């Protein structure tokens, strides 16, 4: 029904995701159910895409983020998972410099998010949870605005904008008003808006929320293809465990403002299987339930009114 | 304990060529600092022009109110001759006031757009671009001036059709444009500041309604300051709208005015507005 069903371009997502993840034997350490917060950095030459130490953020008395440690390695697709109100959006907003970093340190490619805001912003492309394309501009104008805001030079602007639109399969719809786009198309337009600035880190907050399954696949295929083509790091929040399982290299399970577990989906699932000691094939959702323990009931109360309203609004605008 | 991160090495430019994305792999270089403000203001104004090009309805509907002010209020009061204008026909006296008023009415509700942009995620994304908040606010402020300028042009044409003898000296018209832009910047920043305080559209509407009338009637747009009671003169003395109207009258009609003071006040007001709004913008980002 939606045009997202058709994958444009010879987009071959390449053997990017999952599958290849567990060639090496799982280290013994993963057997222990202890939450693996703050995986060690590679120690290599390239700085980590994101390095987050002891990040805390409170809204009034509510601790939205309560001591998060995580490292996103350059080039990976990293998923931040958790139910509404787990603190995912707040954490990502601290990373994007939208919110101050009151406690802890946040670094993006070695640049401090609190002190070097402009440098950090130049390196990130951010797609917020809400549909952030301007409906009263055409697709091309939407992308061109961001090219201008990131100082893309005039002589290369038109070419870059056209390429970005082409990469997300919107070349034909580029001169239509964004208000006439379907939900999936708007998400892809937002991807193009981020892509045109050549970010090193693409941050997507619930990119597939409210989309139908076909549009969801379409969005993910574009994310994967762009990642494969550009080598950019992708940090994505989602509460769809199946998507994270399929498309993310590593995931952090967040609950009540903390990272409760962090590893590849395969290792997390394998660890749970070992703990259970049976032949069942646990899903990532099972892992999540296991990690959160009996606390899952409390998570249903997670997500304040504004949070849920925003989600619903996005969903309703996506139709 | 430490699980080795399974992050794959960054894929090289080879697939990029396959997708034809090669030109998208280089991050644009930052411009020198002085470039940022004019560049962002330009980008925001362009967006405003693009929107107006796609949908001109607002331009037409917005012209109705000033037209009615000139036609009904202006024509009637010209006959009554109740207001001492210093020898100028009342309609002529009123026209610059209506330009200022209609520009203010547009700008004073600009904050609603900011709140809308906040709710829709547009603002969030703008705040994550390498744009200092002051530059973003200045961009928005002058973009609101684009609409006000269009409005001013409409009123100028209308007034001319009604027989008002306005100047067509291009230098003076440039001065008019500058006064309209600066005042618009101030009033839209006032609106954005209020938006940053009240945070919802409904409240902003209420506050906007509450302050437009005092700003309008507490200025010299409709009548000279001399006929006002003392307390209202005090309001007028701190009301940037009065300085804007004074400048517009001086430029368009050649009546005695204090152009230097007017422009200094408008500049200072715009600067103060931009400062206040950029300080409060962060509240909208939360």
Automatic annotation (TrEMBL), chain B:
<keyword id="KW-0813">Transport</keyword>
<protein>
    <recommendedName>
        <fullName>Transport permease protein</fullName>
    </recommendedName>
</protein>
<dbReference type="InterPro" id="IPR047817">
    <property type="entry name" value="ABC2_TM_bact-type"/>
</dbReference>
<feature type="transmembrane region" description="Helical">
    <location>
        <begin position="93"/>
        <end position="116"/>
    </location>
</feature>
<comment type="similarity">
    <text>Belongs to the ABC-2 integral membrane protein family.</text>
</comment>
<keyword id="KW-1003">Cell membrane</keyword>
<feature type="transmembrane region" description="Helical">
    <location>
        <begin position="174"/>
        <end position="199"/>
    </location>
</feature>
<dbReference type="InterPro" id="IPR000412">
    <property type="entry name" value="ABC_2_transport"/>
</dbReference>
<keyword id="KW-0046">Antibiotic resistance</keyword>
<dbReference type="InterPro" id="IPR013525">
    <property type="entry name" value="ABC2_TM"/>
</dbReference>
<keyword id="KW-0472">Membrane</keyword>
<feature type="domain" description="ABC transmembrane type-2">
    <location>
        <begin position="57"/>
        <end position="284"/>
    </location>
</feature>
<dbReference type="InterPro" id="IPR051784">
    <property type="entry name" value="Nod_factor_ABC_transporter"/>
</dbReference>
<keyword id="KW-1133">Transmembrane helix</keyword>
<keyword id="KW-0812">Transmembrane</keyword>
<feature type="transmembrane region" description="Helical">
    <location>
        <begin position="259"/>
        <end position="281"/>
    </location>
</feature>
<dbReference type="Pfam" id="PF01061">
    <property type="entry name" value="ABC2_membrane"/>
</dbReference>
<feature type="transmembrane region" description="Helical">
    <location>
        <begin position="149"/>
        <end position="168"/>
    </location>
</feature>
């Amino acid at each position: 029904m939606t045009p997202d069903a058709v994958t444009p371009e010879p987009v071959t997502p390449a053997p990017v995701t999952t599958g290849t993840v567990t060639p090496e034997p799982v280290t013994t350490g993963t057997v222990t159910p202890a939450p693996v917060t703050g995986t060690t950095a590679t120690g290599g030459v390239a700085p980590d895409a994101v390095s987050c130490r002891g990040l805390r953020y409170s809204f009034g008395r509510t601790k939205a983020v309560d001591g998060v440690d995580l490292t996103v390695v350059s080039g990976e697709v990293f998923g931040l998972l958790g139910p509404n109100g787990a603190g995912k959006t707040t954490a990502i907003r601290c990373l994007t410099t939208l919110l101050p970093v009151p406690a802890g340190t946040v670094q993006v490619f070695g640049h401090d998010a609190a002190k070097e805001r402009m440098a950090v912003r130049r390196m990130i492309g951010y797609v917020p949870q809400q549909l952030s394309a301007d409906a009263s501009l055409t697709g091309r104008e939407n992308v061109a605005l961001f090219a201008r805001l990131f100082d893309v030079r005039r002589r290369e602007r038109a070419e870059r904008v056209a390429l970005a639109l082409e990469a997300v399969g919107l070349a034909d719809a580029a001169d239509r008003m964004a208000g006439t786009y379907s939900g999936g198309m708007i998400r892809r337009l937002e991807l193009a808006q981020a892509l045109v600035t050549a970010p090193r880190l693409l941050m997507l907050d619930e990119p597939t929320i409210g989309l139908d399954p076909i549009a969801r696949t379409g969005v993910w295929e574009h994310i994967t293809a762009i990642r494969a083509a550009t080598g950019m790091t992708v940090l994505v929040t989602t509460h769809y465990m199946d998507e994270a399982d399929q498309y993310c290299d590593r995931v952090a399970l967040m609950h009540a403002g903390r990272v409760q577990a962090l590893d590849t989906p395969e290792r997390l699932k394998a660890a749970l299987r070992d703990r259970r000691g049976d032949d069942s094939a646990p899903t990532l959702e099972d892992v999540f339930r296991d990690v959160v323990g009996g606390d899952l009931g409390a998570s249903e109360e997670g997500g304040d009114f504004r949070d849920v309203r925003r989600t619903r609004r996005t969903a309703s605008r996506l139709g | 304990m430490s699980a080795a991160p399974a992050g794959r090495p960054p894929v090289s430019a080879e697939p990029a060529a396959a997708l034809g994305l090669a030109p998208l792999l280089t991050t644009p270089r930052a411009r020198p600092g002085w470039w940022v403000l004019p560049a962002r203001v330009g980008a925001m104004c362009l967006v405003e022009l693009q929107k107006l090009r796609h949908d001109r309805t607002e331009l037409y509907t917005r012209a109705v109110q000033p037209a009615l002010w000139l036609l009904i209020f202006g024509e009637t009061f010209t006959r009554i001759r109740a207001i001492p204008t210093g020898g100028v026909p009342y309609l002529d006296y009123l026209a610059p006031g209506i330009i200022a008023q209609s520009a203010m009415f547009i700008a004073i509700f600009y904050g609603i757009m900011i709140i809308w942009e906040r709710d829709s995620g547009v603002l969030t994304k703008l705040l994550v671009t390498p744009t200092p908040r002051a530059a973003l606010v200045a961009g928005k402020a002058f973009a609101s001036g684009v609409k006000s300028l269009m409005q001013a042009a409409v009123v100028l044409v209308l007034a001319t059709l009604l027989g008002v003898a306005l100047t067509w000296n291009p230098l003076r018209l440039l001065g008019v444009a500058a006064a309209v832009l600066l005042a618009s910047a101030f009033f839209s920043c006032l609106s954005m500041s209020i938006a940053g305080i009240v945070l919802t559209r409904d409240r902003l509407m209420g506050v906007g309604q509450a302050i437009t009338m005092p700003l309008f009637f507490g200025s010299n747009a409709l009548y000279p300051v001399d006929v006002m009671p003392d307390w209202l003169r005090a309001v007028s003395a701190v009301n940037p709208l009065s300085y804007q109207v004074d400048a517009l009258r001086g430029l368009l009609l050649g009546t005695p005015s204090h152009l230097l003071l007017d422009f200094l006040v408008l500049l200072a007001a715009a600067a103060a507005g931009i400062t206040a709004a950029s300080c409060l913008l962060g509240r909208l980002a939360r």
